[in-house]
Amino acid sequence: MTDEATSTADEADAARGDRVVITVSHNGPYCVSGAERLTTHLGESISTSAQMELCRCGGSASKPFCDGSHRTNGFDDAKDPKRVPDRRDCYDGTTITVLDNRGLCQHAGLCSDRLNTVFHADGEPFVTPSGGRFDEIRSAVRACPSGALSFAVDGREMREEVDRVNRPPEIEVSKDGPYRITGGVELIDERGDPVERPEGASEEHYALCRCGHSRNKPFCSGMHWYVGFADPPAAEEPTLFEWAGGYPALLRVTKLFYEKYVPTDPLLSPLFARMSPDHPERVASWLSQVFGGPAFYSDRYGDYNRMLGEHLGKCLSDDQREAWVRNIVAAANEALLADDAEFRAAFCSYLEWGSRLAVENSQLTSQPPLNMPIPRWWWVCDATPWTRASALADTEPDAPVTVPAEGEAPSFERHVKTLFRRRDRDSMRFAFDLWSYEDVRTHADSILERVRAGTMPCDGTWPPESIELFAAWVDSGTPA
Question: How many CB atoms lie within 10 A of CB 126?
Answer without folding.
Answer: 18
